[in-house]
Structures are given as structure tokens and as C-alpha cells.
User: What shape does this take?
Amino acid sequence: YTLEVLNPPKDAVNVSEWKSFFLQFGEAVTCITIALDNQDLTRALVKRRKLLYDLERRLPNGFPFDIRDPPVEEAVKIAWPLVWWERLQLYNSPEQIKDKLEK
Assistant: This one.
């Protein structure tokens, strides 16, 4: 399970305290991540994931594309190019996707 604590106290940054707190509800706590003011990071990760899904959609069936460790270079080489109506609607080409992922 993944839990998110909304509006934790400002001084609640000690991982050991969080672990003790969550252990009262169960026997195991595998991982604890404390992220404060991470809106920019979250937006960047969402943008990256969207670009990767856009690239994956352009690949032939059976191409091994793992979103967690994507072979971007190889994928761009074999991805289908944009058709005329996609260019009109300003879709990202495989090359543009690669460039945006590298930024």
C-alpha cells in the first residue's frame, strides 16, 4: 500500500517518528519518503511520464518499452513519424519528445 499524509505538521520530518507511527497499524513499513514543497518535481515527473507514453504510442507492437527504464534512443529510431494532421495539431514528433526528455 502507498499512503499519503495530507497537511502533516511542519516539523514532521523525522523518518523514524513516521515509521513508529505507521507501525502501530501493521507489522511492516517498507519505505518512507518525506517530500515537502515538491510541486515542481511532481509536475516535472508527470510531464516526463506523458512524453514517454506519447513515445510508446508511436512504437510498433512488441517493442520492449519499459516506462521505468525506457530505451529512448532506440525507440526514437523506430517510432512512427507524425502524420499530417498530427503536425497541424502540434503533436510532438519522436525527436521532439527525445529533446524534451533530455532537458
Summary: Helices lie at 15-23, 39-57, 72-78, 84-88, 94-102.
